[in-house]
């Protein structure tokens, strides 16, 4: 609960009449672990919770614009939550955060979907089943769904009906079907989960995209899916993918010389997590993104070590040797910072570092963090020695090494 400075909701510090007055007037309330810990622990949690909710429902006057509820336990049933949702829906709630236990998700009541003034919504471990008449939250600009139970169709409708939506976070581990993101004002989309296909068709103002842990693409993706994927949001500035997403988008493409059908002329920051540069299906799209982003300023890559004998399609020595020529007409004129984490010293990794140093005339800093496991001290030293000798297009470029020791 948001209280006056240096005060907590605690029976030892706040008399009941003071507590009732605070519940009566505050427009922004946070009920979380900090609050529960400050109350009398000898009283059962359900009793303490009921006391707070009762006085809130009975005494509060004026609007409640922001409400956060988290870290609840041992309530038995959620009837009090239903009453709370009804109360909030009638008191102008604009920013709502509801977080429930993993083993006991909350089924949103139909009253929840009448919160017409909602602008920021965050749900964790909830079941989302809107009534057929629900047409979205017309004022919603930010939506966060964490491990909610929701069908692909309902999720798609929920997004498309919120025409003012600017920020969307989806972290859903249950496998979803194809969803189409239709959000004309969307600026940031963060997805972690399992899905067959994500279509971003009407997101012309998308600036930030994060895709993690997606599954193998459906046949609908097609051979050239990756090169055309970014056409609908050419103003993208920040892109963060992991190896699942790279393979998901590239659909097994091994063309190391490919470019996107439309360049990402606004992309400033490219982050790739847990990719293996010695796996062709991950190296190819990584090179494609760099080659197609002439205004890149920052590259961050976390490299995942994969033993040679378990690579699906390892990068051949011929492909490694062709990497420089595939960048013959490319110069990274704006690249200033590079961070490579998990380097083991493979031929592909070394050639990749050499390429970036030779193609970045304004590079200021390259940080190389070497991997300790599976790599001998002798190999790590050899890598540092070799990289030190590489020519650098930028006279200001400094290369920093971190062996992790």
UniProtKB/TrEMBL annotation:
Residue stretches making up the F-box/LRR-repeat protein 15/At3g58940/PEG3-like LRR domain: 84-301
Matching Gene3D superfamilies: Ribonuclease Inhibitor
A Pfam match: LRR_At5g56370
Protein origin, superkingdom: Eukaryota
PANTHER family on file: F-BOX DOMAIN-CONTAINING PROTEIN (PTHR31639:SF203), F-BOX PROTEIN-LIKE (PTHR31639)
Name of the featured protein: F-box/LRR-repeat protein 15/At3g58940/PEG3-like LRR domain-containing protein
